[in-house]
Design a protein that fits this description.
Elements: H1 6-13, E1 17-18, E2 23-24, E3 31-37, E4 40-45, H2 55-69, E5 75-80, H3 93-98
Parallel strand pairs: 4-5
Antiparallel strand pairs: 1-2, 3-4
Length: 105
């Protein structure tokens, strides 16, 4: 079984958009960590708020995206974490620009 690199997983997760804002979960800063082990891939991610109704959708979409590109992976786990809490500073400059925010250079 060929395991992906962390960078490959990040690239794959850029395919997963938050449907409320149309920006991928990497640029939104929702992915806090990616661990690749002999068992598969573990993703630590958060939501913009604990009350976000999209947690199941985004978790499932993340798993499906990774399995699509690496079908032989035995496990893809998504762990929702709340510490540290998400805030807009975690967004990439690309995401901020897409939302029309002024980017300080």
């Amino acid at each position: 079984m060929r395991l992906p690199t962390e960078e490959q997983v990040r690239d794959i997760l850029r395919e997963v958009d938050d449907p409320e804002v149309g920006i991928n979960i990497i640029d939104l800063g929702l992915v806090y960590g990616i661990d690749i082990t002999g068992e598969g891939v573990r993703i630590k991610m958060t939501m913009t708020t604990p009350a976000c109704p999209l947690h199941t959708y985004l978790s499932t979409a993340s798993q499906e995206a990774i399995r699509k590109h690496f079908p032989d992976i035995s496990a893809v786990d998504v762990e929702l974490v709340w510490d540290p809490p998400w805030d807009p500073a975690k967004m990439s400059p690309t995401a901020k620009q897409q939302l029309g925010w002024k980017i300080d250079r």
